[in-house]
Amino acid sequence: MPKSKVQKQSSPGEFGAKPDRDLGFNEAMPLIEPGKKAPSFALKDQTGKVHKLADYAGRPLILYFYPKDDTPGCTKETCSFQSYLPKFKPSKAAVVGVSILDEKSKAKFANKYDITFPLLADPDHEVAEKYGVWQQKAFMGRKFMGIVRTTYLIGPDGNVQQRWDNVKVDQHADEVLGALS
Question: Cα dist. 150→19, 20, 135, 156, 173 in Å?
Answer without folding.
Answer: 28, 28, 11, 19, 12
